[in-house]
Design goal:
By secondary structure, this protein is of the alpha+beta class. The protein has 3 domains: about 5-25 and about 330-545, no CATH class; about 45-100 and about 110-320, 3-Layer(aba) Sandwich (Aminopeptidase), CATH 3.40.630; about 550-738, no CATH class. It has a 15-stranded mixed β-sheet that branches. A 5-stranded antiparallel β-sheet has the order 15-16-21-18-19, with no helix packed on it. A hairpin with a 3-residue loop joins β1 and β2 (about 100-115).
């Protein structure tokens, strides 16, 4: 029979696990700015004031618009006020994206200022973009970068760096990275650069994450390790950055071979690319952390010219933003292999390769399976991002099910194995999973070295000194939970749209060694309490509002007209959330021809809207095919795109004489060229095809506003709901044969 002390131990461990998951967000809180900045240090209040003046009335200011002209004028005035001599370099650019069949064009004005240096030499480039999406004012994305560069520039102007620093405020990042592409391609200053600090944002709060480096990363990480005061960086995130579709200007800078560091904040993505991305919403602590990190890195990077070689590849991580560790990748990989071999040997010695390993695997699978299944059922019961306003409640519900399922499995079957055997099995399983993950993402290796090494030493000592073995095991458990908890906090911030189950595998690996050390008997009384907690948390998650003033819901409204078919529709993108009762009529879910995004659709009356046009002005032989020049116009819209039929044998497209190669296969299936801004009217583009068949294409004109008839829909939009990623828009489609 379990004594009172054992019962309390089990309940306390379960409570501490839930508390650990509840407060893990504290691990990614940026440091608070000082009330008064010392001379020569980053002044957050001054930087925020500059940003407020530059954004003015905080209207959206997409590339090549009058609103962006006004922002650029105020930016130039701020640069002149701090004693620099800015220049505006303009270019028409059409750029592609790696491994996609999309070309984006815009007319850009890059603003540059060279900070005087104590001596000539190769330059460090600091880059941010000053344009916003047409959806919001962009105080976070990328006003935080603009404010940072201005403050760093003002400090360096007073205390000149050893070698030149170039401040680049580029235009056109949001629609195609056109400003950065134009800088690399046409600007003479680009030839003087050997290193780069890039700044972007995917939210309005959170620490300054250093999430991308040059490859190999040895030189960049050596600089970062020397300069950082509050590090937030890990090599798993740099691997992950290469897998997700989000892009930054680094895509265009990377081929230059510069030593680079890429920073971003990612907290509260619900305001990213929305009208809510305002100066008031931007966290001053995030601005301070980003600015102070960039300032110290700038000072470090300008001490010497950066080497042409990037050094060897490393894996790295911070631990609670207090310690930074970097290890050469070959050494880390060898250590991981060695740990796996030692773990296998110890598991053999402790007879852990049979039933104990199956128990550890069963616990892990039970937790992942149960939490993933309940999360899936919840998304069916309440479609859409119902956790958007209170994500912590929903994620705690996932963790509660995870811990309850693992505890129940352990309480039922754990008596079949000895403590040391289970300890050996648990850490062997963690290492095997870590090894498998590291094959796909080598940056993950760093998370499977320190805690497992301590645990294995403890297992090795367990026969000679059980007490020492237990102490080392407990320390290993704490270190592993701390490292994984910080990763989970970042994952929750990054994957705001889910899937909810994405945290379960890592959460299970954090929980597994804790439960093993507690013992199955002590945890039996905690199963019921965990189930009650899970039920309560899931009930709260299903009943709480979807959105709040701080974390608004995504709700974009479009009017779409098919000019050829003489049909029109209203489309509402609400991330599968049900429409409020105020939206009367026959609404159904589906997709519209201009976008594959699922949305609510209803029939609309035909209204006069901008109509894009395209006409051939030249055609000449090119190999077995032809080179066609086409004049595009948005017909009074704010943007235009031409989308070629799937069977078009398209080889290249872009500006005349500079057409970009188009992959034969890939996404999207229909190759697309788009142009945004005033200069799209009568834009001449070039398409190279491998045959002489007529070109079949679809034209789209975009106006970043709704017709007056959409006013009733805007009025019915739910409270705390705003457009995200795309503004309320009017889109017209027509088909052409060229």
């Amino acid at each position: 029979m379990l004594d009172r002390r054992g019962w309390l131990t089990g309940v306390l461990v379960a409570a501490l696990l839930m508390l650990g998951f509840a407060i893990k967000g504290l691990l990614i809180v940026p440091p608070s700015p000082p009330s008064h900045a010392a001379p020569g240090e980053f002044d957050t209040n001054r930087a925020m004031s500059r940003l407020q003046r530059i954004l003015g009335d905080q209207r959206p200011h997409p590339v090549d618009t009058a609103a962006d002209d006004a922002v650029r004028g105020r930016l130039i005035a701020e640069l002149q006020a701090i004693g620099l001599q800015p220049q505006a370099h303009e270019a028409m650019d059409c750029s592609g994206f790696p491994k996609t069949r999309v070309v984006s064009c815009s007319h850009v004005h890059n603003v540059l200022a060279v900070v005087p240096s104590r001596a000539p030499g190769r330059a460090l480039l600091l880059n941010a973009h000053y344009d916003s999406t047409p959806t919001g004012p962009g105080a976070g994305d990328d006003g935080i970068g603009v404010a940072t560069l201005l403050e760093v520039g003002s400090i360096l102007k007073v205390n000149p760096p050893p070698r030149p620093v170039i401040l680049l405020f580029n235009e056109g990042e949001e629609f195609g990275l056109n400003g950065s592409a134009a800088f690399v391609r046409t600007d003479r200053l680009a030839r003087q650069v050997d290193s780069l600090i890039n700044i972007d944002a995917r939210g309005v709060t959170g620490p300054a994450m250093m999430f991308e480096t040059s490859q190999p990363n040895g030189a960049a990480m050596s600089i970062y390790a020397r300069a950082t005061h509050r590090p937030y960086a890990n090599s798993l995130s740099t691997d992950f950055a290469r897998l997700i579709p989000n892009t930054t200007d680094v895509v265009k800078f990377r081929p230059a071979g510069w030593t680079l560091l890429n920073f971003a904040i990612i907290g509260n993505e619900t305001r990213y690319h929305t009208p809510g991305d305002t100066v008031a919403a931007l966290n001053p602590a995030s601005l301070y952390h980003l600015g102070s990190e960039v300032l110290t890195l700038t000072r470090t990077m300008t001490q010497t010219t950066q080497p042409a070689s990037g050094g060897q590849q490393t894996v790295f991580t911070d631990i609670a933003s207090r310690t930074f560790i970097a290890i050469p990748l070959p050494l880390a990989a060898a250590l991981l292999v060695l740990l796996v071999i030692i773990a296998l040997g110890l598991a053999w010695r402790e007879k852990a390769l049979g039933r104990p390993l199956l128990l550890a695997l069963g616990m892990t699978a039970a937790g992942i399976g149960a939490s993933g299944f309940i999360a899936f059922v919840a998304t069916l019961a309440r479609p859409g991002d119902f956790w958007r306003a209170y994500p912590l409640v929903t994620y705690l519900a996932v963790y509660a099910v995870l811990i309850a399922a693992m505890t129940a499995f352990w309480a039922r079957w754990g008596g079949l194995a000895q403590r040391v055997s289970m300890r050996a099995a648990a850490w062997l399983l963690i290492l095997l999973i870590g090894g498998a993950l590291s094959i796909a993402m080598p940056g993950a290796i760093i998370f499977f070295l320190f805690a497992p090494a301590m645990a294995l030493v403890g297992i090795a000592l367990s026969r000679r000194s059980p007490a020492a073995g237990t102490v080392l095991a407990l320390v290993a458990v704490l270190v592993q939970f701390l490292m994984f908890a910080q990763l989970l906090a970042l994952i929750e911030a990054l994957l705001i749209d889910g899937p909810l189950w994405s945290v379960a595998p890592l959460g299970a690996l954090a929980v597994l060694p804790v439960l093993v050390e507690t013992g199955d008997a002590r945890l039996r009384p905690a199963v019921g309490l965990l189930v009650v907690a899970a039920v309560g948390l899931w009930a709260a998650a299903m009943l709480l509002p979807r959105s709040s003033a701080e974390r608004p819901a995504a709700f974009s409204i479009d009017y779409f007209r098919d000019a050829d078919q003489k049909t029109a529709s209203w489309g509402i993108a609400a991330k599968q959330a049900p429409l409020p009762s105020a939206f009367a009529g026959d609404w159904h879910q589906g997709t519209l021809p201009y976008n594959g995004r699922s949305r609510w659709i209803a029939a609309a009356s035909l209204l006069p809207t901008p109509l894009a046009s395209a006409r051939v002005v030249a055609s000449e032989p090119a190999g077995t095919g032809r080179r066609v020049r086409i004049v595009l116009s948005p017909g009074g819209g704010d943007a235009v795109s031409i989308r070629f039929a799937k069977d078009t044998s398209l080889l290249a497209m872009g500006l005349p004489g500079a057409a970009l190669p188009i992959p034969a296969t890939g996404q999207p299936e229909k190759a697309l060229l788009r142009c945004t801004g005033r200069s799209c009217d009568n834009l001449v583009i070039e398409a190279v095809v491998s045959d002489n068949r007529p070109l079949q294409a679809e034209l789209f004109s975009y106006r970043f506003a709704l017709p007056a008839e959409g006013g009733s829909l805007v009025a019915a939009r739910p409270k705390n709901a705003i457009p995200q990623y795309a503004p309320d828009s009017t889109i017209t489609m027509t088909r052409v044969r060229l």
